[in-house]
Amino acid sequence: MGAARTPDYVEDLTPASEYERRDEEEAAKPYRRAKGEGRPTKRDRRILDLIRGAE
Q1: Which of 13, 15, 20, 33 is least buried, going by the fewest C-beta atoms within 10 A?
Q2: Are 31 and 48 in contact (CB under 8 A)?
Q3: Cα 34 from Cα 13, distance rounded (Å)
Q4: What is the pTM of this model?
């Protein structure tokens, strides 16, 4: 069975409120690196520390 046929056999029982909560948590994060950007540079890390309030 391939992934394309999965919806024929599986029903999503997750309530809509769980999807909304997940989206709110993602939006609350101050900064997220895009996939493939790699490790933050020293400059990036210092900026992130300022945003997060770290010393």
Answers
A1: 13
A2: yes
A3: 30
A4: 0.45
In whole angstroms, how far apart are CA 12 and each of 3, 6, 9, 25? Answer: 14, 11, 10, 21
Residue 55 pLDDT exceeds 60? no
Alpha helical stretches, state H, 1-55? 16-28, 42-52
Q: Are 29 and 51 in contact (CB under 8 A)?
A: no
Cα separation of 44 and 48, whole Å? Answer: 6
Check: CB of residue 51 under 8 Å from CB of residue 30.
Answer: yes
6 contacts 23 by C-beta, under 8 angstroms: no
- Is the pLDDT at 47 greater than 60? The verdict is yes
Tell me what the pLDDT averaged over the chain comes to: 84
